[in-house]
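Posted in: Protein Modeling Q&A

I'm a second-year student putting together a small comparison for a lab meeting, and my supervisor asked me to include a predicted structure for Anti-anti-sigma factor. I've never done this before, so apologies if this is the wrong subforum. The sequence is pasted below exactly as I got it from our records. If anyone can share the structure token output, I'd also love a short note on what stands out.
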Amino acid sequence: MAGEGPVGGPPTASGVPARSGPAPAEPLLEQPFDGDSLYALRATLEAHASQAGFPDGRVMDLVMTVHELATNAVLHGAGRGTVRLWRVGGTLRCEVRDAGPSAADPRAGTGTDDGTGHIVGGGPRDGADPGSIDSAGEGTGGGAGDRWPVRHGHGLWIARYLTDGFTLATGPDGTVATVDFTVPAGPAGDSPFALGRHERGSYVLLELTGTLSEQAAEQVTTVVGDIVAGDRARPRLVLDLSGVTFWDAVGVAALITAKQRVEAASGALVLTGLTAGFRQRLDALSPTPFTVYDDRHQADHHFRTPPGS
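Accepted answer (user: helix_wrangler)
Welcome! Here is the predicted structure, written out as tokens:
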């Protein structure tokens, strides 16, 4: 998946690529928010993400992610906070900072969630780089993950795996979340989506190339639906994603839906051509894990080998 945004960096221990470096001093955006101004914040973020060159689907990923973080600041923090946005090389970085612990939460414990629920070190220092905060995971007590709960399958969990970098830290002055989104190398139209269908006797090969976004998701859903409704008693599919150059949340949802539809028909669907980072994200976002092979030759062997041999 050369040139893709969300899986372009080396994964950290949590499966989220490491961030690209410290943020510059002057943000592109610094906007306070509370429960009554979240709609205005969404509109501002959408404008900045579009101007940065993100395709529509990825714009919505950024807006939804930051909205989720801001909502957590409103619900689990002091009810208000500040969003700051920077352009850092090929990345758009957004920091969401709440205004301090909520009145109902007298705890002032400091620390950064290390990805296991254990708190390591202290919270962000005054004036510290957003990029210096360690990666966060599921919180279980006393720290960032406890104030802003990161639970499997819930909003913050999903947001974490839609970004190219995610950190969550807490301290006496409140909680800070920072997310990175890799800006596409060229206009979204540079990689139009194409889907090739190839009959392979014992299975159907679907070859996906280009941007896996909303339009692509509709095509994938339609083609898989036609195969499931066809004359194959137990449909078997291989989806080759080696030609996919960019994706968004709608594209990921289409893959998950395709898997569920095929398995509901007592069939099997396997993927091939994924990077390690993209595979980690799919495993985190899908209710059940995908079967993945390095290349289509291994997938071919999977369907041509009799069960139990």
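A couple of things worth pointing out for your meeting: The chain is about 30% helix and 25% strand. The first strand starts at residue 29 and ends at 34.
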